[in-house]
C-alpha cells in the first residue's frame, strides 16, 4: 500500500504529531510525505522530513497559496496527488482535522477519524462515546482518508532517513479563503500535546489568580506543561488553549497531575492514556481516582504548596 502523510510544520521544523502519524503510516505500507508551504520554511521542513526514519520520499509543494496551510487550498493539492496513493494520513490536530474531511469529500470517500490502532489494511480502531468504548471499523472505499491520534502511536525517529525531496505543484489558490492573521499564545513551557509532564488544574482552584499561584509554580518546578479542565476554562481561569479533554487537547505524558479535577468523562477522554496519573482532590469519591495511579485525598490549597515547596 502506498501511503501519503500530510506533514505539519512550523518555522521549518516538523511537528511531533507528524512523527506519530508516520509510525501509523509505516504499518500500512510505503510512506511518502507531503510538505505544503512557502519559501525557506517549507524547504527546511522538507529537508527535516527527509531525515525521518522509514520515509521513502518527500513531496514539496512550495507556493504562496500553501503558506498557512489553508484547507481550501491544500485539500485540492492532496486530492490531486492521491491518484498515486492508496491512503492519506493526517495528524488528528486542528490542521489535520480541517484538511482531511475536504480531501475525503473531493475523493468521494468516507473519512476514518482519530484512529488509535491498525487492525488490518482497511480495518482500524477508534474511540467513541468520549473514549468510553473502542469501535473497530472497516472501510470498503478504494482509497483511505484517515486522521491519526498522535498519543496512540510512538514517534518515528526524526533522524536516520535520507529520502529524496521531489517538488510538486497543485492548483494553488482556490480563491475561497485568505489568511488574515494569527493570534497565538506564547509560552516558554513545553507544548501541551508533547510534554513529558502535565500539571492540570480544575474549577476547584476558585479563580484565575489562584490557578496561577498554585498550578504555575508546580509546573515550573517540574518543567511541565500547564493544562486545565473544561470547567476551569469555562470559568475563565485560563485560556482555551490549555484545555485537556474530548473538546480540548489529547495528551499522554509520562506524568499527568490532576489538581482539583473531578474527572468528568470528557476530561478523562483527553488524558487517561497518560503513563502515570496523580490526582489531588479532597472529594474521595471523585471519578478521577478511578483512573489515577496515585491518589491524594487532601485539600489542594494545603497539599499543592507543600508539594511545590518540597520538590
Automatic annotation (TrEMBL):
Where does the Electron transfer flavoprotein alpha/beta-subunit N-terminal domain start and stop, copy by copy?
Answer: 3-183
InterPro entries for the chain: DHS-like_NAD/FAD-binding_dom, ETF_a/b_N, ETF_a/FixB, ETF_alpha_N, ETF_asu_C, ETF_asu_C_CS, Rossmann-like_a/b/a_fold
Q: Does the keyword Isomerase apply?
A: no
Q: Which GO terms describe its biological process?
A: fatty acid beta-oxidation using acyl-CoA dehydrogenase
Q: Which UniProt keywords apply?
A: Electron transport, FAD, Flavoprotein, Transport
Report whether DNA-binding shows up as a keyword of the record: no
Q: Which Pfam families match?
A: ETF, ETF_alpha
Q: Which domain of life is it from?
A: Bacteria
Binding positions for FAD?
A: 203, 229-230, 243-247, 260-267, 281
The annotation note on the cofactor reads: Binds 1 FAD per dimer.
Recorded GO MF terms = electron transfer activity; flavin adenine dinucleotide binding
Gene3D superfamilies (UniProt xref): HUPs, TPP-binding domain
Cofactor section: FAD
* Function as written in the Swiss-Prot or TrEMBL entry: The electron transfer flavoprotein serves as a specific electron acceptor for other dehydrogenases. It transfers the electrons to the main respiratory chain via ETF-ubiquinone oxidoreductase (ETF dehydrogenase).
Q: How does it assemble?
A: Heterodimer of an alpha and a beta subunit.
Record family assignment: Belongs to the ETF alpha-subunit/FixB family.
- Designated name of the protein: Electron transfer flavoprotein subunit alpha
**What is the source species?**
Croceibacterium atlanticum
Amino acid at each position: 500500500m502506498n501511503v501519503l502523510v500530510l506533514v505539519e510544520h512550523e518555522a521549518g521544523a516538523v511537528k511531533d504529531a507528524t512523527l506519530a502519524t508516520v509510525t501509523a503510516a509505516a504499518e500500512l505500507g510505503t510512506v511518502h510525505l507531503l510538505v505544503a508551504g512557502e519559501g525557506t520554511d517549507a524547504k527546511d521542513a522538507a529537508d527535516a522530513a527527509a531525515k525521518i526514519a522509514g520515509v521513502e520520499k518527500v513531496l514539496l509543494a512550495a507556493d504562496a497559496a500553501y503558506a498557512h496551510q489553508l484547507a481550501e487550498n491544500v485539500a485540492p493539492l492532496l486530492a490531486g496527488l492521491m491518484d498515486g496513493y492508496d491512503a492519506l494520513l493526517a495528524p488528528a490536530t486542528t490542521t489535520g482535522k480541517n484538511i482531511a474531511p475536504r480531501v475525503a469529500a473531493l475523493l468521494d470517500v468516507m473519512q476514518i477519524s482519530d484512529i488509535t490502532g491498525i487492525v488490518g489494511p482497511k480495518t482500524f480502531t477508534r474511540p467513541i462515546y468520549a473514549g468510553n468504548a473502542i469501535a473497530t471499523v472497516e472501510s470498503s472505499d478504494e482509497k483511505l482518508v484517515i486522521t491519526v491520534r498522535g498519543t496512540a502511536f510512538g514517534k518515528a525517529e526524526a533522524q536516520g532517513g535520507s529520502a529524496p525531496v521531489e517538488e510538486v505543484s497543485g492548483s494553488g489558490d482556490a480563491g475561497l479563503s485568505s489568511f488574515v492573521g494569527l493570534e497565538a499564545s506564547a509560552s516558554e513551557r513545553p507544548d501541551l500535546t508533547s510534554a513529558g509532564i502535565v500539571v492540570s488544574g480544575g474549577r476547584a482552584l476558585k479563580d484565575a489568580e489562584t490557578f496561577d499561584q498554585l498550578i504555575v509554580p508546580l509546573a515550573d518546578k517540574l518543567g511541565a506543561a500547564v493544562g486545565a479542565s473544561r470547567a476551569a476554562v469555562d470559568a475563565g481561569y485560563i485560556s482555551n488553549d490549555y484545555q485537556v479533554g474530548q473538546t480540548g487537547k489529547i495528551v499522554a505524558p509520562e506524568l499527568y497531575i490532576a489538581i482539583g479535577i473531578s474527572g468528568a468523562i470528557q476530561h478523562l477522554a483527553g488524558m487517561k492514556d497518560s503513563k502515570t496519573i496523580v490526582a489531588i482532590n479532597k472529594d474521595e469519591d471523585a471519578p478521577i481516582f478511578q483512573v489515577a495511579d496515585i491518589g491524594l485525598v487532601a485539600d489542594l490549597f494545603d497539599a499543592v504548596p507543600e508539594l511545590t515547596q518540597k520538590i
